[in-house]
Structures are given as C-alpha cells and as structure tokens.
C-alpha cells in the first residue's frame, strides 16, 4: 500500500474516533495534500503551510524550540495543526463543542503515525529541518 493510502486510512480512523471533526487533512510542509477528508483541501493545505511557516519562526524566535501544534478558535469552531514528522502537518477542523483535550490527544497520536508514514520511523532520530520554513 502506498504512503498516501496509509495516510488516508489514518485520517479516516481519526474521524471515526472523533465524530466532532468536520474535516481532516495531511499535507506536506510545502502545502501539497497527502490525504484529505475535508472540503477545499488544497486551500486549507496552502493556508496551513503559510501558518506553519509563521509558527515555526515564532516558536524558534521565542526560544520555544521546534513547532509542535497550533490551535485557532473561530466563531463556529476550531482549526488545529500538528507537526506530523519533519515533512508533514496534520490539520483538523472541528465544531465548537469538541473536547479540546481529546482533540490534542488523538491528533498527536495520528500526527506521529502520519510522520512515521511520510518520514519513516528512523526519521525520529534525525534533527528536524525547521518544518520546511
């Protein structure tokens, strides 16, 4: 099975575990969609890549180390982005009643799995290249 098929399977499992999600996608740090179960995946992936670049710089400039995650709360819910290895990012869209702690827990697990699929398990031992920023 190709990495993209495995990524899509992980996204579907995540949606099954968290029915409050309204969309999920995994994209490369360059904004190219790896797998999605969301409306407008290309647009969301492109904007995630832009936000990722800012977050990487902000985290490093603030002395907080590598980017790990971003949470945005809007009037109608949340957009969350999580590092998924060194070459990908997991973006989740959720309604306003989502349990944020559960969202973080599930997303961190799925992000690690997706990172392993994209980077390979050995990549966890290599230094992070700055998330492509």
Report on this model:
The protein is built from 3 helices and 5 strands. It has 133 residues and is an alpha+beta fold. It has a 5-stranded antiparallel β-sheet with strand order 2-1-5-4-3. The chain starts with a helix and ends in a 14-residue tail after the last helix. The C terminus is likely disordered.
Set down the secondary structure blueprint:
Elements: H1 3-17, E1 21-28, E2 33-37, H2 41-61, E3 69-74, E4 77-84, E5 88-94, H3 100-119
Antiparallel strand pairs: 1-2, 1-5, 3-4, 4-5
Helix pairs in contact: 1-3
The main sheet comes to: 5 strands, antiparallel
Helix content: 40-55%
Structural class: alpha+beta
Q: Residue ranges: pLDDT <50 for 5 or more in a row?
A: 125-133
- Sheet-strand content, in percent, reads 25-35%
Query: How many angstroms separate the termini?
Result: 30 Å
**Number of E-state strands:** 5
Order of helical and strand elements:
HEEHEEEH
Inertia-based shape: globular
CA radius of gyration: 14 Å
Q: Biggest sheet: strands side by side, in what order?
A: 2-1-5-4-3
Look at the structure and give the mean pLDDT.
89
Number of helical regions: 3
């Amino acid at each position: 099975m190709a990495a993209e098929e495995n990524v899509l399977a992980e996204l579907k499992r995540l949606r099954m575990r968290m029915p409050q999600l309204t969309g999920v996608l995994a994209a490369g740090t360059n904004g190219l969609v790896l797998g999605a179960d969301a409306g407008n995946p290309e647009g969301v992936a492109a904007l995630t890549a832009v936000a990722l670049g800012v977050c990487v710089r902000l985290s490093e400039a603030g002395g907080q180390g590598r980017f790990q995650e971003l949470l945005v709360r809007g009037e109608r819910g949340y957009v969350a982005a999580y590092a998924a290895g060194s070459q990908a990012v997991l973006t989740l869209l959720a309604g306003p009643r989502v349990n944020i702690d559960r969202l973080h827990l599930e997303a961190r697990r799925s992000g690690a799995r997706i990172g392993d699929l994209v980077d390979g398990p050995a990549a966890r031992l290599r230094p992070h290249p700055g998330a492509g920023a």
